[in-house]
Amino acid sequence: MSRAGLVSRAVVGLAAAALLLTGCTSDPLADQYRAGDSKGYIAGDGSITEIASADRGDPVEFAGLTETGEPVASADYLGEVTVVNFWYASCAPCRAEADDLQSLNAQFEGKGASFLGVNVRDQAANALAFSETYGVTYPSVLDVDDGGMQLAFSGSIPPNAVPTTLVLDAEGRVAARILGAIAEASILETLITDTIAEGSPVEDN
């Protein structure tokens, strides 16, 4: 191959690497998604489902390892609301909603709700790079090898619907679902706030 060809291939490789870790202030994939250009991407339609307390199924039991190798389990989150977001690094709508998720995570920290990501495709290095690029501080379970998290939530998330965000009540039951990217942070904020409020029922006299 000619020197010019080698240079061309190197430039393409560098451009691809830059695209993978582009910051949220200028992200072509996220911008394409916001503009309505899905590039053949299969995702949810953004529909919102709320489940009345009396109609919720059994608590979801799960366990896994985070991108830093720390073990996590459903028992760790009982007693408070848990927001579970399914994502992966090259997912355009996942990038588009990352800021909103992190902002809400910070807003509800210590106030009755915790966030947990579930990365369905990446190994630790890419997951950590994504979190650093987008300033995400909550952990994510790596689910690419055995799909255990997806299996645990299989009754709540359909195949190919990434991102999907679930709100679990204090008992670990699915209380609400956003199938696809979060259209407005205020929508998820309301779902979280309403579910937190359930955990403080008025006692009968």
UniProtKB/TrEMBL annotation:
Annotated Pfam families: AhpC-TSA
Main location: other
Any one GO MF annotation of this record: oxidoreductase activity
Tagged with keyword Magnesium: no
Domain spans labelled Thioredoxin: 51-197
Keywords for this protein: Cytochrome c-type biogenesis, Disulfide bond, Redox-active center, Signal-anchor, Transmembrane
GO biological process, one term: cytochrome complex assembly
Subcellular location: Cell envelope
Gene3D superfamilies: Glutaredoxin
SUPFAM superfamilies registered for this protein in UniProt: Thioredoxin-like
The keyword Aminoacyl-tRNA synthetase appears for this protein: no
GO CC terms of this entry: cell envelope
Name this protein carries in UniProt: TlpA family protein disulfide reductase
Organism of provenance: Cryobacterium melibiosiphilum
Organism lineage string: Bacteria, Bacillati, Actinomycetota, Actinomycetes, Micrococcales
